[in-house]
Write a structure and sequence with these properties.
UraD-like, globular, 2 domains, two-stranded parallel sheet, 61% helix, 194 residues, mainly alpha, 2 strands, 12 helices
Length: 194
């Protein structure tokens, strides 16, 4: 959608910047009062590549606080069919993968990977991430997802190696728990209590 086609309220609040991968700060009251386009433009990115969760959450407004919003969004994800949950997992980029090397990560993913030092890997660490990412993809059919902000490059490598040993059902559950953590931190970046 072009900026000129966004409602005046979305343009006024600068929500278009969020659609271009930067986060617009809003209060929970402003978000509750926002039209659908502004609401989705503001928080549609919190579940990577899955703005449908924010679109569905808009119907459940108002939210008492960020935690209530987060719980509602998680419930929408958890209640969705398995193929849709796997699509949410698959929307995440590999850690230190091709998209990162090509500079094609979303603003949020890029910031998160930088926070864990993934932009400063040695050639040996990069090669290990590449090998483990390939092995993980081969085993599960989707990328390894973890809340990067809670980790370092070494703990990420250890988790990637360990979780590759899981069965697929366990790994789907693990990935969804991590996605919940990522989404909560992203919401806290953008939505303030007042």
């Amino acid at each position: 959608m072009s900026e000129s086609r966004l409602p005046a309220e979305a343009r006024r609040l600068g929500a278009w910047r969020t659609r271009k991968n930067s986060c617009l700060k809003m209060t929970i009251a402003q978000l509750n009062a926002a039209d659908r386009v502004t609401f989705v433009a503001t928080i549609g990115f919190v579940f990577e590549g899955s703005p449908w969760i924010a679109e569905a959450a808009w119907e459940q407004r108002p939210f008492a606080d960020v935690d209530a919003l987060h719980r509602a969004m998680l419930a929408l994800l958890e209640d969705s069919p398995l193929d849709r949950r796997i699509a949410v997992i698959a929307a995440h980029p590999d850690l230190a993968g091709r998209l990162a090397r090509e500079g094609r990560l979303t603003h949020a993913s890029r910031s998160e990977q930088i926070s864990a030092g993934l932009d400063r890997l040695t050639p040996e660490q990069s090669a290990r991430f590449e090998r483990l990412n390939v092995e993980y993809h081969r085993r599960f059919g989707f990328p390894f997802v973890v809340c990067v902000r809670e980790n370092t490059e070494e703990s990420l490598l250890a988790a990637l190696a360990a979780r590759t040993q899981n069965d697929r059902t366990t790994e789907i559950s693990s990935a969804l728990v991590e996605i919940g953590k990522i989404a909560r931190l992203r919401l806290l970046d953008c939505v303030t209590p007042s």
